[in-house]
Amino acid sequence: MKKPNNSLFGSRLETIARIAALAVISFGAIALLSWFLLPQNASTGTPLPPQIRANTALAFLLSGACLWLTANKNKNQIRASRYACHFLATVVTLFGSVTLLEFFGQWDFRIDQFLTRDNLAGWAPGRPAFFTALLFLIFGISFLLLDRRVGKRIYPSDTLIIIGMLISILALLGHLCNFPAYYMATFIHPGGRLTLLVALGFTILGTGMLCARPQRGLMAIVTSKTAGGVLARRLLLAPILIPAVLGLLPLLGINRRFLNGDVVWLFAFADLLALTLAIWWNASIVFHIDLKRLAAEQKMLALNDDLEKRVTERTLQLEAANRDLQQEITERRQAELEIQRLNAELEKRVSERTAQLEASNKELESFCYSVSHDLRAPLRSIDGFAHALQEEAGPTLNATSRDHLHIVRSATKHMGRLIDDLLQLSRLNTSQMRLQPVDLSQVAQRIVSDLQRSQPGRSVEFIKPSNLIVQGDERLLSIALQNLLSNAWKFTAKASAPRIELGMEHNNGETLCFVRDNGAGFEMAFAGKLFRAFQRLHSTQEFPGHGIGLATVQRILNRHGGRVWAQSAPNQGATFYFILPNS
């Protein structure tokens, strides 16, 4: 089961670990620099006296750096930090173990005065105390085993760190309460004594190591929100702080001659009383926490009973809903079968209508063929005989007769063009399309060049992009562009500086092609008539035409799956937009 950890408290402990690392680094660096910058004289009054050996200061500096690498979790440098930490921990471990070998074997590996000469030491110049070396060995191994686990919950490093901290805290209490045995002053070896500053440095180092991993091992209990976590946080420091405070008071009283040794037993009694009260107070807190837990369990049982009752009610409701759902599914199935029957009937009707449309298309083709041959022949005869009469008897006819002949010939030519446009319009739906890339810029340039040759006296400014590539049938798009550009050419005849533009723009995620002119324009109220066959907005005397061109354009765009529309205003020109979806 996962422990309910206090993430905020854990992050604060990680911050404490980083602060402890900086403190140990600073402690080691200042102690090491004091050997090189301050004279080795006990009367100098330096903040770090020479009993802190140079090797000890260097080992503290390396241990602090190792703690800093452990406490800072940079995801981009985890592997490099782990390797560097293991290297520094190995150096500290070797330093402690080699120094202990010098104590046990009476050997000298010449590392004691490796950094500087110790002129103040007596029995072993430059060599750290026995328990200093032991603590460096313990904490170095702890760094190497910091993330190693035995089984599911046991971290050996936690045990080693606690052992090291107990030794250093005991030495601190000994210095504070003037108990020499606590800081190993009475050790059998003359080099066993732990100084106050060294004990303080190891206490800070051990605290930082425990705080560096607040979410696992023993610290997971301390940082948890459980009753055990609350009890651990409240009682953990009591065995340290209470003896320290109550031990200092009689010591200060005796030194100041306020007290004598006969009343020291009162402070021992106060020590026991304070510990008892602390345990009793925290037990009371845990007791009330358990009462709340039991009340919550009772409430949970009541809620479970209510939940079971509600589940039974909801089960009955679900059974009723399932019956209704089954009935609805049956009705929907019947509706689906009815839809399938109607779809089959619709497909049959579509097939019949398709056959009718195919027959109509064939009749339309026959009609187009008939129009092409049966109507053209009389028109050619009328135009031919009128032309012959004009050539042979023209000089003998009066002016009125000659005008009549001219009107006959003009009407036959107009009728011929109208028949051609109708045939073209009718064949648009039956002709097969061949989709390919089409450069509208080149097509438009050819059309405008033909229009210019037909009226060499006109000067029209034509604007186009260099490459306007679309996807479509080149023949049909040429017909559509021919009609649009011819319209623009025709309706700019009365403009003082005629201009026609072919272009492209983007609007609401769509690519629009357009043909724009500055010609006569039209009222937008009549825009609905533009694309109907034989519908005109201007008279033939003002602007000639048949009223079929724009209907042809719309049919071509519809066959491509696109659309066409216009925007205009009187005497302000017109813009015809069209969209080709495959472009």
From TrEMBL:
The chain crosses the membrane at residues 20-38, 50-71, 83-107, 127-147, 159-182, 194-214, 235-252, 264-283. PROSITE patterns: HIS_KIN (PS50109). The lineage of its organism: Bacteria, Pseudomonadati, Verrucomicrobiota, Pedosphaerae, Pedosphaerales. Keywords: Coiled coil, Kinase, Membrane, Phosphoprotein, Transferase, Transmembrane, Transmembrane helix. This is histidine kinase. Its EC number is 2.7.13.3. Residues 304-363 form a coiled coil. CDD domains: HisKA (cd00082). It comes from Pedosphaera parvula (strain Ellin514). GO terms for molecular function: phosphorelay response regulator activity; phosphorelay sensor kinase activity; protein kinase activator activity. It catalyses: ATP + protein L-histidine = ADP + protein N-phospho-L-histidine. One of its GO terms (biological process) is osmosensory signaling via phosphorelay pathway. Residues 370-583 form the Histidine kinase domain. It is an enzyme of class 2 (transferase).
